[in-house]
Design goal:
- The structure is a homodimer of 179-residue chains.
- With 179 residues, chain A is α+β, with helices and mostly antiparallel strands.
- Chain A has a domain at 14-90: Winged helix-like DNA-binding domain superfamily/Winged helix DNA-binding domain (Arc Repressor Mutant, subunit A).
- In chain A, a hairpin with a 6-residue loop joins β4 and β5.
- Chain A is globular.
- In chain A, the strands form 2 sheets. Chain A has a two-stranded antiparallel sheet with strand order 1-2. Chain A has a two-stranded antiparallel ribbon with strand order 4-5.
- Chain A has helices spanning 14-22, 25-35, 42-49, 53-65, 87-90, 93-106, and strands spanning 69-73, 81-85, 113-119, 144-150, 157-158.
- Chain A has 6 helices and 5 strands; from the N terminus they run ααααββααβββ.
- The interface between A and B is large, with 110 and 110 residues.
């Protein structure tokens, strides 16, 4: 390995595959600027992130090639084009919100100014996100298991996901933290 | 900039601050292995990720220094120590789940084998996560605004968050995507 970037694209684990698709943290901040900051133009992203143009160009190109963003003609009718999130990219909104809420409770010291995510309708802080069972029970670490299934939705079989690229078919295990 | 890593630690945006705290995608995969895979030992992480030992050591050290993981004596009484998530680290579970659910719906082709996150109690797939208002309304992109507030919870004032490090005090705006 030694610093060489491994691709997780063929990985069975959705989290590893996401890592491969989004690419790096800069790309997540580009998605943030598009989803939460309403930014659309190359120059807007560049100004917001303070990122070198060539690096930003590579990141945007990758996001487009992975179907997370797409280019559209500029909304003002000029010759420029703009970058907007596809529907797939817009669905990353919940990932951003989960990160936001974690940071709200974990990364700001008492007395520090911080952004608080509020409901636009009434200005009240939003509710903390939760993972729930279909019947509404809140699920915590250790309350979930993983089943391997075909994307089409045939009868589930228990299998274990593997972080390793070439051994995606090991035996089943519950997704339990051991603490 | 030119490839030089900027620190977002002082950034007003919780997402940027998270990027700085977690460090890189490798660290997210370490957190995944600890939270979902029950891994605790250096060798277990190394085997799972196929990551060079020196790189893994740096990542683990950073996660410990940021209060996301901590070292504890080995559970088998041997001289080794193990890495476990702190309570702050365990709260990242929801971020992993949000990524997981996005990937489930976005990154697997029909007919492809994928991991499906299920409720351990009844084996049913879990419900899709949602962002909700306090009164239960589902909130989507554009339904939220950001308020700057002191961590202690004094009366909220409207402000704009900024991705730029040195201008965290600009005027207010709704967090609306423009699409």
């Amino acid at each position: 390995m030694k610093g060489k970037r491994r691709s997780f694209a063929a990985d069975a684990c959705p989290i590893a595959r996401t890592v491969d698709t989004i690419g790096d943290w800069w790309s997540l901040l580009i998605i943030r600027d598009a989803a939460l900051g309403g930014k659309r133009r190359f120059g807007e992203f560049q100004k917001s992130l303070g990122l070198a143009k060539n690096i930003l160009a590579v990141r945007l190109r990758k996001l487009v090639s992975r179907g997370i963003m797409e280019t559209v003609p500029a909304s003002d009718g000029s010759a420029y084009h703009e970058y907007v999130l596809t529907e797939k990219g817009q669905r990353l909104h919940l990932v951003l919100m989960a990160i936001w809420q974690w940071a709200e409770t974990s990364l700001f010291a008492p007395g520090e100014m911080q952004g608080v995510l509020c409901d636009q309708q009434n200005g009240e802080p939003v509710a903390p996100m939760e993972l729930r069972a279909r019947d509404g029970r809140v699920l915590r670490i250790g309350d979930t298991i993983l089943r391997r299934d075909l994307r089409t939705g045939s009868a589930p079989k228990k299998h274990r996901w593997s972080a390793k690229r070439r051994s995606p078919s090991k035996r089943s295990t519950a997704l339990n933290a051991t603490r």
